[in-house]
Write a structure and sequence with these properties.
The C terminus is likely disordered. About 30% of the residues are buried. The protein has about 200 residues and is an alpha+beta fold.
Amino acid sequence: MTADLSIAQIREAFADHSPWTHPRREGRRMRAATALVLHEPSGGAPEILFIERTEREGDRWSGHMALPGGRAEPGETLIDGSRRETHEEVGVALGEPFGRVADSRGAPAVVATYLYEVTERPELRLDTREVQTALWVPLPSLLDPGNAVRFHYRGPFTFGAVAIEHHLIWGLTRGILASFLKPLGLRLPRTPIVPDRRW
């Protein structure tokens, strides 16, 4: 597949996809789920909904770019958790997922990610206690080598990221994106290791 694929092609690729799922043991790891929400504007490329988490002291994900989602409540399925968290964080009501991405390890949780489509771009209502910004990012922008950067985080360490305007998508969220792209035959561009491309 190429970067100009449609949501119909994404649905087809995930119809028979059997992702790796973590053998969870209750009480050993937190159960968490995210929603990868896709929308295809008329005449445009599919786009994905991202959030920027509100900066809060003591929150390890504070200020990070992410997909809507969070911890599943006791007795709640991971699918229901992804839908509830999305509705709470950005006000979007989701239907049934059409696919699932391979689980991602992100201490202290293993994160399940489900694929959803919204046929109309919904009005977003942000819970500002959790989310400070939300934006739709076209798939070609995520695959553009010109948006691949490295940045310093906590000292000398550098990490690969995708730069969208002044936002950085990295870490767990970047890993989820890579897992989403794999069944489509696509990859995030390699991050150049040159000084002038460091964030």
